[in-house]
Amino acid sequence: MTTERRYDIDWLRVIAIGLLLIYHVAIVFQPWGALIGFIQSENPMESIWKPMTMLNVWRIPLLFYVSGMGVCFAMRKRNFKQLLFERAKRILVPFMFGSFVIVPVHVYLWQKYYYQDIIYSPHPGHLWFLGNIFVYVIILVPVFFYLRNNKTLFLNRWLNKLYSNPISILAIGFPFILETLIVKPESFEVYAMTMHGFVIGLLAFFFGFTFILNGKVFWQTILKWKWLYFATAGLLYGIRLLYFRLNAPNYFVAIESVMWVISILGIAYRYLNKPSKVLTYLKQGAYPIYILHMIFIYLGATLILPLRIENGLKFFLLTVFTFLGSILTYILIVRIRFLRAVFGI
Predict the structure, then answer these.
(1) Which DSSP string corresponds to 276-310?
(2) DSSP 198
(3) In 190-206, which positions are buried (b, 16+ CB within 10 angstroms) versus exposed (e)?
């Protein structure tokens, strides 16, 4: 197992969280936003949704891949019990705190905005994926330790061979295709609190672990072929957009999703695997900022949507408000010991 520091993996987590914030702001300006619990603009801006349809097939899976990689790194210095305890502090505690404290705040803002009865409503909300990650840790970490400690296993040898070939590496997509055929999700992009989202995350978490476990083999392959994978992903998105009108079969979207992820991993490995003072600060703030951001989207929406200004400016202001509010609150949190603990810092 590689022992080098992988700054690109840290950057990918930060970037993925940042994109998720923008994605959620975009939902505010869609005509169906209120149907999934968002405060919704009375003047939709559907044009911004097309680029979001490119993001939403890989943004959540990428986080699960990266989380699996993180577990592989964490196993360098921890045994099974130490790893479970560390993940509980970093993931389970923030998940529980967020479900009982953070999510009810933005639910309250939604209720107040739409003149609903004010009801305290604990709920995982947007933190569902943290709960999934902890379950994956419980399910897969025993398997991960077994794989790490038995490098000559057939599975390890087979994956090494698979990852060494630019064509065979695409077999990663087969389990994801099979999942769509068995689970039959309504839409590939519906991950939150669904069986589809759980299985997709489990697969991505597993493969993310193996990408690190198998050392340089995987990374050398995607480094060399990254732009071909990227072009293929772009072509598949073009077909989904122009031919399928964004209603492509789920198995088609599964292939596109894997192509985006592999190409992004290769590009990040080439250009982002370097230390940075900004990264040092942001990497521990990625999850706390994500936990907080929905409060500032909802609060910002109540303040900005009534303004008599152009829709594009509203989108910009709400995005800035969300980022600044989340980051400034995070800066406060890191100075308070109790809050550091409940946010997994």
Answers:
(1) -HHHHHHTTTHHHHHHHHHHHHHHHHHHHTTS-S-
(2) H
(3) ebbeeebbbbbbbbbbb
CA 289 to chain centre: 13
pTM over 0.90: yes
Q: Name every residue whose Cβ is closer than 8 Å to that of residue 46 and which is 6 or more positions away in sequence.
A: 29, 30, 31
Q: 185: helix, coil or strand?
A: coil
- In angstroms, the CA 49 to CA 38 distance is 15
Please state the rounded mean pLDDT for residues 335-339.
87
Residue bearing tokens 């809050």: 339
For 7-22, write each residue's pLDDT tens digit.
999 999 999 999 999 9
- What are the pLDDT digits (tens) for 148-169? 888 777 887 888 888 988 899 8
Measured distance CA(12)–CA(97) in Å, rounded: 25
* Token pair for 229: 């994978």
Contact 297, 28 (CB under 8 A): yes
d(CA 96, CA 93): 5
